[in-house]
UniProtKB/TrEMBL annotation, chain A:
One CC-aspect GO term: plasma membrane
Protein name: Nucleoside-binding protein
InterPro entries xref list: ABC-Purine-Binding, PnrA-like, TAT_signal, TAT_signal_bac_arc
Signal peptide annotation: 1-30
Pfam families listed in its UniProt record: Bmp (PF02608), TAT_signal (PF10518)
Residue ranges of every copy of the ABC transporter substrate-binding protein PnrA-like domain listed in the record: 35-322
Domain of life: Bacteria
NCBIfam families for this protein: TAT_signal_seq
UniProt-listed CDD domains: PBP1_BMP-like
Sorted UniProt keywords: Signal
Keyword Signal assigned: yes
Automatic annotation (TrEMBL), chain B:
Entry protein name: Nucleoside ABC transporter membrane protein
UniProt-listed CDD domains: TM_PBP1_transp_TpRbsC_like (cd06580)
GO molecular function: transmembrane transporter activity
Subcellular location: Cell membrane
Annotated organism of origin: Aliiruegeria lutimaris
InterPro entries to which the protein is assigned, alphabetical: ABC_transp_permease
Membrane-spanning ranges: 6-31, 43-61, 67-89, 96-114, 141-163, 195-217, 229-258, 270-288
Keywords noted in UniProt: Cell membrane, Membrane, Transmembrane, Transmembrane helix
Amino acid sequence: MTSTPFSRRGFLKTSAALAGAAALPKAAFAAGDLTVGFIYVGPKDDYGYNQAHAEGAGAVKALAGVTVVEEENVAETIDVQKSMESMINFDGATLLFPTSFGYFDPHILEVAPKNPDLRFQHCGGLWQDGVHPTNAGSYFGYIGMGQYLNGITAGYATKTKKIGFVAAKPIPQVLLNINSFLLGARSVDSEITCQVIFTGEWSLAVKEAEATNALADAGCDVVTCHVDGPKVVMETGAARGMYLNGYHANQSSLAPEIYLTGAEWNWAKVYEDMVKTTMDGGTIPNFVRGGLAEGFIKMSPLGPAVSDEARNKFEATKAEIMKGGFAAIKGPLKDNKGNVIATEGQAFEESDVALESMDYLVEGVIGATS
Amino acid sequence: MDSDIGLWAIPLAILGGAIRVSPPFLFVSLGEVLTERSGRINLGLEGTLVFGAMSGYALAYQTGSPWVGVLAAAVAGSLFGLVHGLLCSLPRVNDIAIGIAMMLLGMGLAFFFGKPYIQPVAPDLPAISFGWWSELQQVQAALRVNVLFLIGIAAAIGLWWMFRATRLGLIIRVVGDSSDAACAMGIRPSVVHTFATAAGGAFAGVGGAYLSLFYPGSWNEGISSGQGLMAVALVIFARWNPIACLWAALIFGGAGALGPALQSAGISQGYYLFYAAPYVLTLGVLIATSSPTRAVTGAPGELSITK
């Protein structure tokens, strides 16, 4: 018998297979199970941004009835759209966490409207009510407060009155961290300045090392950073005899003697909450924020180089922040070009959304945003 | 201690940057000169560099000796070169296509086997301080010279001398300039190609070990960020001359330090432009040194881009 492309038997086989495949994700739903997808821009164990998220994903894995699918090293290009679509179509993921800042526009904005039943939670502050799809949302933590506390330990540790910051890109979250770090240090000594060097990318090992060396050459004796993997900055800083303030995750094991403290993410709690809400049939709010008090961020244990005086001020300020409503950015305050940011009595609390569109460096920061 | 040296920080940082950043460029471009002088192009050296960085770091961590790591990187690099050389000896195989395939293979394998080594801390290669005469810590930091950098300079001079004055150098040059002449001399070009590519791979592997074992001194997947590809391009810039490769690598390293140095000196407007400095410089030098009569001066005659 000759077989034609449209034989009846062939048609029945194909359509049965298709129907079966289409039924699969629904069957998974029925059992109350949930497949969650995590997408990272770099490797999962980078001592930094991606590791912090992957640790959170690890906590979600431990929940009963949850399947976690992960993909790392996904560029902020059309690649992330392909990753999301394959997680949706092949793994049956219904809740996605594309974790990098650049995944949102245009990539999540492209995929989310096509999949109105699924949920896309983006890390960073870009989602806006009324502008963006309602099945997308943003979550972020007030880690600027952590950098403020970092700044307090740096303010006591510095002898040259100059502290350094290796930054990736001048986006609002990074600028808030730089400003908070300096203002924390200035709460100790108002003469301290902070030198910032932008590398232009989230992960450029050689440039980060060069930037750290340049900061040491400029006389900075404490360094922190906002790049994806702080390991290179920490190791280069340690080799140059600088005190270290960590970021994203705990880097104290790299140089325990000179590591002061660090601002760390605590995504485990945040992810567990969002996944549990979804499993209980609830809807995750589109706008999820929290700080130290809500358990979104935490500080590394203080290192042996932190003096008692610094420890007292650190603990007192931390207790103040835990009460909520703390403002690092408060008047009178100017930016480093002389424009007034806040007048006497004016204060931007940690939860103020105005901070999420920050485009200035405060007075005392040496550097420019472009 | 008064450590503020003002604008002097910029030339000093460029010098320091040239010394710190140039060795990977130098080793990869020396390896590529060796390969291209024999008439083959190996575009896979970016992959070899990354794999060398990973294998060097892994072995240094496992054995506790950074020199074992350098050796391992050299062996791994020569294996990659050997595979490239042997594959290209098959009939109707294009060396550029194989090179791109080897680049992707090298990076993929390095990422795969390198997973467990991102977190651990491996011992660093030793450095010699040539800045002991200065009180300034900036000068001392800039003049911390790694032993591999000195080996790289020696290798550049050695290769130059080899091409110029030895029988081996003559054989490589003959094969690279005219296969027919080589065959008439009784030399088998494919054997020379294969060994030259393997030796070139070993150089690139050592360049990778410098990245992971000295500067920046740790293994992660973004460690190279395209330096291997830039180094292959530097060979054209250096007109297939090992000594010129040394200058090219130093210029590239120094220009790369310009961006951070200017920002730290307070000149922070337009840093994206400063980061493009090495590439602008390359364009400028290529235009300035271009020849109106011959497109690729100094290129080996058998190279597939010149034929």
